[in-house]
Amino acid sequence: MMLSMDADQSPRMNTNSNGRRLSTIRSGMTLVEVLLVVAIGFVLFFVLIPPPGHRHNRVIAARMTCMRNLKQIAMAELLWGADNGGRFCATVSTNFGGSLEMLHAGQVAAHFEILNIYLKSAPTLYHCPMDSRQATNATGIKNGEVSYFVSLDADFGRSNLCLVGDRNLTIKGSDAQAGMLVLRSDSKAAWTKEMHSIKSWERNGVVALPDGHAEVVLEKTMARLTQLGAQANRLVFP
């Protein structure tokens, strides 16, 4: 039997010879299917794209870790100095157990290895969590895994000199490279945004001073650490 449309547009039903209703293939999506796709999209969005505060929190946590690292390294430097005539390891010849010649050869990792006896968590302390370089492991360290520079000129009587600090430093617009760099009052030192920046225009780094404390140094306050007068601070970068 077949139902047809009359002039009044009354519906008719098409049936086959067995009296069963003929089915048609429906195109498009149901409301349930649309909602399911939207829900999956939201889940993927929140899984793949971190919330706005995620990077901020991650950078703050890494900065705190970096400050702890540098504070412990500075304390190890002070302890080494107390055991060796009141001089920092970097200023003492290797003939007397120091690292002076090592640092002149750019061997920052070897310098830190001398301090290991004063540090419980060495050598992982020598790596900043925000550093893109490979992290150090428990078996030892290499220059390419170290995140911090070392001063050759810091001493107990020059509290304004950086003792150790983040390697993401620039001098007169050029990124610091492995080896020795001389920091002077006219050096125009600044930070790159590589390691601790939360906002694109904010650049900072962490340093430790000869008195043993570590602090975050903003780019706008960097001049305080570079007002050296006729002095200079030779820094060795890994």
UniProtKB/TrEMBL annotation:
Polar residues compositional bias, start-end: 11-20
Keywords: Membrane, Transmembrane, Transmembrane helix
Membrane-crossing residue ranges in chain numbering: 30-49
Region (Disordered): 1-20
Protein name: Prepilin-type N-terminal cleavage/methylation domain-containing protein
UniProt organism field: Pedosphaera parvula (strain Ellin514)
